[in-house]
Write a structure and sequence with these properties.
Rossmann fold, 5 domains, alpha/beta, 5-stranded antiparallel beta sheet, about 550 residues, about 45% helix
Length: about 550
């Protein structure tokens, strides 16, 4: 594809991708979070980088930052215009460059054939914010200064074409030229490509900073009492740490532990962690969901059954208590135990003895019981559905596990863990979750807690593109996500409310009812006048048209009747 001397203006499909959330303070470009910052602030940061690290290191950092931004926009471009021509897809980048307020872009020349790995592009940049920032801080420079913008162009084209493309500034307004002239072509076609590519390689000082950060995170986790060797339980929030600290104190003793919390908070994970940390770790851990076993079979499952005890009992069988002898028995949803089973459980807890169904011979067992429930056992005691003596026997060491909405700071950690788990399971490369999706994940109430989050992330891994990001549409297809406080940009560059899904609903209703287009127009126009008490100017403002336009349309309607 070839093109010469063309102006570019951001199209409507790009404008519609920009959204402003008044409630949360976010600005979105597609799924990625954006910032609206003063150029003075960016210029100040740029100046500090230069004066702290020197020109070469600062230049590299800014170019790599721009490179990453360009890569993100390239991924957005292909998604935004999947059925468009190669040229239309490609021009998303320059249009976004303008829309993001970085620079005004004009195309001098472009010659691209992606299949043949052919690329040449000349661009004119006007009103570069980097040039303006540099001139304000240092005056005119001896060398080009649009480092982040050059990085953006290189990152965008490299990601889009699938080969290493580098842009170089031939002239720069920051150096006194009328405008910036930039040229992009494959790295191998440049003289001394190693000198150009060095800015896109992380410098040692950056690596050192990142390594130090990792060490600090590791030390912080140790100080906070999180056992990093046990990665089955993840969390650093205060609510989580408080619960986990109680669990750690119960490790060595034989005390019966009662785990309390909503469904899906991870009670079994806590129980397994307690078992692994205890001196019983080399013995069996047996888990029983008391709510999943019918009442008439529950006692046999827990305490075993003797041959001939009832029809179908053709042989003697150990129950869960005998199988867990020497180890740990986890009784989930213990509030659903039958009253008779509660009595036998109390005997085991107090005496360490049980009887199989159909047998009077006493069997001694050494079992540590960890019970769990989402019910309020005290209320069940008061209503007569749970034995009072068993309640007090179980409630010796209660631990309340916080629900996910009480530990929102742990959500990113959990998401990262689940992504790592399921990308291996489904043999997919997943880069993570988009900014927009992450905000909604953190805002969501999570009535199903960690279990629900895990299921949502699994679905996201399945639906996202291989090598891409999990986006909002991959996660919340069946959930009510409130975005009513968001806005987008109008044709005049002004904010207007975003009414997501309303237009589609209206279109669906239009075709389902098979109404005439002119009838719909007449109804809307007259309703606007009615709601404005006959004031045409007010009605026109409601409709987003001028008063003469409204008057003309109403007149035409009357003429056509």
């Amino acid at each position: 594809m070839q093109l010469n001397n063309s102006d570019l203006l951001p199209s409507d499909d790009l404008k519609d991708r920009i959204r402003f959330s008044f409630e949360t303070g976010h600005i979105w470009l597609g799924e990625q979070r954006m910032l609206l910052l003063h150029t003075e602030a960016i210029g100040s940061m740029r100046k500090e980088l230069i004066e702290t690290l020197g020109i070469e290191l600062a230049k590299g950092i800014l170019m790599r930052t721009g490179f990453q931004a360009g890569q993100a926009d390239a991924r957005l471009a292909k998604k935004l215009r999947p059925n468009a021509s190669e040229m239309e897809q490609f021009f998303v980048g320059p249009e976004l460059h303008q829309l993001e307020g970085l620079v005004r872009v004009k195309v001098n020349k472009i010659d691209i054939n992606i299949e043949n790995k052919q690329f040449y592009m000349e661009l004119v940049w006007e009103h570069s914010y980097e040039s303006e920032a540099h001139k304000k801080a240092y005056g005119f420079s001896d060398e080009p200064v649009c480092w982040m913008e050059i990085g953006y162009a290189s990152g965008y084209t490299s990601e889009f074409t699938g080969q290493s493309i580098l842009f170089v500034e031939q002239t720069c307004s920051g150096s006194g030229a009328e405008h910036c002239l930039v040229v992009g072509k494959p790295i191998a076609e440049w003289e001394n490509p190693e000198a150009l590519a060095k800015y896109y390689k992380s410098e040692s000082i950056v690596d050192q900073i990142l390594n130090l950060r990792d060490e600090v995170d590791s030390l912080r986790s140790t100080i906070e009492g999180i056992d990093l060797e046990q990665q089955d339980i993840i969390g650093r929030s205060k609510a989580f740490r408080d619960a986990y600290a109680l669990l750690n104190k119960a490790v060595q003793g034989p005390v019966t532990v009662l785990l309390l919390g909503e469904t899906g908070v991870g009670k079994e994970l806590f129980a397994r962690s307690l078992h692994r940390k205890s001196n019983r770790h080399d013995q069996a851990f047996i888990a029983v969901n008391c709510a999943a076993i019918p009442d008439d079979l529950l006692e046999a499952e827990l305490f075993g059954v003797e041959k001939g005890a009832y029809t179908g009992a053709h042989e003697s069988r150990k129950g869960r208590f005998e199988r867990a002898n020497g180890g740990t028995l986890f009784l989930d949803e213990i509030g659903d135990l039958s009253y008779s089973a509660q009595a036998k459980l109390l005997r085991v807890l107090q005496e360490g003895e049980l009887e199989r169904v159909g047998r009077t011979h006493v069997i001694s067992v050494d079992v540590r019981v960890v019970a769990a429930t989402h019910d309020n056992l005290f209320n069940k005691v008061e209503s007569g559905d749970f034995r009072r003596d068993l309640f007090y026997r179980l409630n010796v060491y209660p631990i309340t596990i916080p629900c996910l909405k009480e530990r929102q700071g742990d959500i990113p950690l959990l998401i990262e863990s689940f992504i790592d788990q399921y990308k291996v399971k489904y043999h997919k490369e997943v880069k993570g979750v988009t900014d927009h999706a992450m905000v909604q994940l953190e805002r969501y109430e999570w009535p199903g807690n960690i279990r629900e989050l895990e299921n949502v992330i699994e679905r996201g891994v399945l639906l996202c593109e291989n090598g891409g990001y999990i986006e909002l549409e991959h996660l919340f297809a069946m959930m009510n996500i409130d975005e009513k406080s968001e806005a987008t940009v109008s044709e005049r560059g002004q904010l207007k409310p975003l009414k997501k899904g309303i237009h589609k609903q209206f279109v669906d209703m239009f075709f389902e009812t098979q109404n005439n287009l002119f009838e719909i127009e007449e109804t809307i126009l007259k309703e606007a006048v009615k709601r404005s008490n006959g004031n045409l100017s007010a009605a026109a403002r409601k409709l987003g048209v001028t008063r003469p336009q409204l008057a003309y349309r109403l007149g035409k309607i009357e003429e056509d009747k």
